[in-house]
Write a structure and sequence with these properties.
Blueprint (H helix, E strand, L loop, with lengths): L1 H12 L9 H27 L3 E7 L3 E7 L4 E7 L2 E8 L2 E7 L5 H4 L9 E4 L4 E7 H4 L9
Antiparallel strand pairs: 1-2, 1-7, 3-4, 4-5, 6-7
């Protein structure tokens, strides 16, 4: 009868010694959880909000036709690739409001506001892209020599 009790105790314990959490363990776990929960919020706030966002409009992705801050509302009239466009900057978002191209995909594309997002019109070779100063600083992840 006693042998069965000791066998079942070993199976539930898996041979590991019994330990209790100390106050230090609880504090360490709490700090790590707080950091894990706050990191995405703080990094987004400090990295993106402190960098100025702007709209870059290029033809064929090479020649910059226009640059304008994203935080100021404005309508921009542009002729590119034989087509006329109206790029609208409003409430921190950019969109193509009007275009005389055939398929109107650029006009139907939802407004963009995040760095790296873009609206492309293949017919007129127009690219409207959101950029930030953070990207221009060319921070290196690592250096290979």
């Amino acid at each position: 009868m006693f042998k069965n009790d000791s066998v079942s105790e070993k199976n539930t314990n898996l041979g590991l010694p019994k330990t209790k959490l100390t106050v230090f363990d609880v504090i360490l776990i709490a700090v790590l959880l707080i950091i894990a929960l706050l990191y995405p919020i703080l990094s987004a706030a400090f990295l993106r909000e402190s960098d100025s966002m702007y709209v870059e409009i290029t033809d064929t992705g090479e020649n910059i036709v226009y640059e304008y801050p994203l935080d100021i509302d404005k309508n921009i009239e542009i002729e590119c690739g034989g087509h006329n466009y109206t790029v609208k900057i409003e409430n921190g978002k950019a969109s193509v409001a009007k275009s005389d191209c055939e398929n109107q995909i650029c006009v139907k594309t939802p407004p963009i506001s995040k760095s790296g997002s873009s609206i492309v019109c293949a017919a007129g070779r127009l690219i409207v892209e959101i950029k930030s100063d953070f990207e221009e600083k060319n921070y290196a992840d690592f250096v290979i020599q």
